[in-house]
Amino acid sequence: MNILVFDIETIPDVVSGRRLYELDGLSDADTAKVMFHKRREETGESEFLRHHLHRIVAISVVLRRDDQLRVWSLGDAKADETELIKRFFEGIERYTPTLVSWNGGGFDLPVLHYRSLLHGIAAPRYWDTGDNDRDFKWNNYLSRFHARHTDLMDVLSGYQPRASAPLDQIAQILGLPGKLGMHGSEVWDQYQAGKIEAIRDYCETDVLNTYLVYLRFELIRGNLDQKQWEQETQRVRDVLKSENKPHFQAFLQAWK
Question: Mind spelling out the 3-state secondary structure of 42-93?
Answer without folding.
Answer: HHCCCCCCCHHHEEEEEEEEEEEECCEEEEEECCCCCCCHHHHHHHHHHHHH
